[in-house]
Specification:
Elements lengths: L16 H6 L4 H6 L4 H11 L11 H6 L10 E6 L8 H8 L1 H15 L3 E6 L7 H13 L15 E6 L9 H8 L23 E5 H5 L1 H7 L1 H5 L9 E8 L5 E6 L2 E2 H8 L9 E5 L8 E2 H6 L1 E2 L1 H6 L8 E6 L4 H15 L5 H18 L7 H12 L7 H15 L1 H9 L15 H6 L1 H10 L11
Parallel strand pairs: 1-2, 1-4, 2-3, 5-11
Antiparallel strand pairs: 5-6, 7-10, 8-9, 8-11
Helix pairs in contact: 3-6, 5-6, 15-16, 15-18, 16-17, 16-18, 16-21, 17-18
This protein binds flavin mononucleotide (FMN).
Length: 456
């Protein structure tokens, strides 16, 4: 199998510049820097590289939106926030092959004519900082970074910034706010970052894995990249595999690779005696797949979309038949409720309500038409927020309940009769109690039907 991103990361000395260069590091930069920025953009556009940060937007097209203006030179921001649950492949790249990422940032910066790039690293990834700092210092000492790169006349510097420890800091406009020293509230678009981004300048935000593909694309050419993968999804994908699987870890597979094959071969199968129940294929922000769906899906943008889900970040979480889906949803919903930044009302209030409802189902204290109510809240969040966090929070709720409905219905059927009359309580248990007053608001505005009416 072609390895584009992980070919050298297994060598322990790959973090050192000399060893990395012996294996070809910075050959792509040396070539790109002799080409015009427009030619580099053309090459990347032809390669059909699509963003690996979650949305899969074509990288060359994104760069093409920038209009160069010498009075307002652009910035390139490398997004290493990696807060999506179940995702740890950017960490792997930065830990094992930092020069590949640095080279990718430099090529990207050359393409968009930026002389300053930022590497925004998740606040919790402190253990990576010595490796990255050393790699940057080595590159700078060798003239690969900083003024007059490889005597080309081009200058690009990279500054490392550690994130603020919040999921929202990975959202591109939240990231910019955070980088400007402010609270990471996402920005309303337009203006789009390509027009007005970080510090008011045109800005491109790219994911670590996206940029790490660039050295290979420049060295081998767009057509070689397109030859790997499928027609719509070129190249490979780094997958973070975790959950009920014998060999969790980061694996690189060509786009179009069978998900089942990944579980059985790379992942070494499920624990003995266990059966596959479900897989979240792209971080918790995408709809879950049932075991039957997993059997027919491949790892690429189009197959995932056809199956009603998304490739997302490629954070794949495996559930076997020992897992309670309502409990998993409880953990996931709690994550979104605590990580909602609070800027948009539907997300701020709605994620808390969804968390509270799932928590009281789990606590054995369902109220009225709770499943119906969950769906209504989800529908009222989706598409009504500035950034994608609200939409992300909705996907697991909707897909878990609709695909594993009997497990949720069983919680209601087996619940002890409520000690409090319908709609009079303030929630149950410490988690629901926290949202009590917020739910009161919801209660006032919602009709009480008494009977479940959900249509998931
Ligand atoms: C709530 C939220 C969190 C995000 N977190 C990340 C992240 O940690 N890393 C990342 O690369 N993209 C993240 N994204 C996507 C970014 O906004 C952006 O689309 C991406 O960095 C663009 O890079 P790409 O085009 O190379 O994929 C997040 C989006 C949302 C809505």
């Amino acid at each position: 199998m072609t390895k584009i991103l992980s070919e050298n990361g297994a060598f322990p000395d790959q973090v050192l510049l000399a060893a990395a260069r012996e294996r070809g590091a910075y050959a792509g930069l040396r070539q790109a820097i002799t080409e015009s920025p427009q030619d580099v953009i053309l090459e990347v556009t032809e390669s059909n590289l699509r963003g690996r940060g979650g949305a899969g937007f074509p990288t060359g097209r994104k760069w093409g939106f920038l209009r160069f203006d010498s009075n307002r030179p652009p910035y390139l921001l490398c997004n290493a926030d990696e807060s999506e649950p179940g995702t740890f492949k950017d960490h792997w790249l930065l830990e094992h092959d930092p020069h590949q990422v640095i080279e990718g940032i430099l090529i990207g910066a050359h393409a968009i004519q930026a002389s300053q790039a930022y590497l925004y690293i998740r606040g919790e990834y402190t253990s990576l900082l010595p490796t990255i700092t050393r790699a940057l210092e080595e590159a700078r000492a060798e003239g690969l970074l900083g003024p007059d790169i490889l005597q080309s006349g081009r200058s690009v510097d990279i500054t490392v910034v550690t994130g603020a420890g919040a999921y929202i800091c990975g959202e591109e406009t939240g990231l910019m706010e955070s980088l400007e020293g402010k609270r990471a509230y996402p920005r309303v678009r337009p203006p789009f970052p390509a027009v007005r981004g970080f510090a008011g300048r045109p800005t491109v935000v790219n994911n670590v894995e996206t940029l790490a593909n660039l050295p290979w694309i420049i060295r081998h050419g767009a057509q070689a990249f397109r030859a790997v993968g499928t027609s719509d999804s070129s190249g490979t994908k780094l997958v973070s595999l975790s959950g009920c699987i014998n060999r969790p870890g980061v694996y690189e597979v060509p786009m179009g690779y069978s998900l089942m094959q990944l579980l059985e071969e790379e992942g070494g199968g499920l624990p003995p005696g266990r059966h596959l129940k479900a897989v979240i294929p792209g971080g918790t922000s995408v709809p879950v797949l049932t075991a039957d769906e997993v059997r027919s899906v491949t790892i690429d943008f189009e197959s995932m979309r056809a199956a009603g889900t998304l490739l997302g970040s490629g954070g794949m979480i495996v559930f076997d038949d020992s897992v309670s889906m309502p409990q998993m949803l409880g953990a996931i919903s709690h994550f979104y409720a605590t990580e909602s930044c609070g800027e948009c009302t539907p997300c701020r209030e709605g994620t808390g309500w969804m968390d509270a409802i799932v928590a009281r189902l789990l606590d054995g204290h369902p109220q009225g038409d709770d499943l119906d109510r969950l769906l209504r809240i989800a529908n009222n969040i989706e598409g009504r927020t500035i950034c994608g966090l609200g939409d992300a929070a909705v996907q697991p709720v909707r897909s878990f309940v609709s695909k594993f409905l009997p497990e949720f219905e069983a919680l209601i059927q087996n619940a002890a009769p409520s000690e409090q009359p319908e709609w009079q309580g303030h929630g149950h248990g410490p988690r629901t109690a926290r949202y009590g007053p917020l739910e009161d608001e919801a209660r006032r505005s919602e009709p009480v039907t008494g009977q479940p009416t959900y249509r998931w």
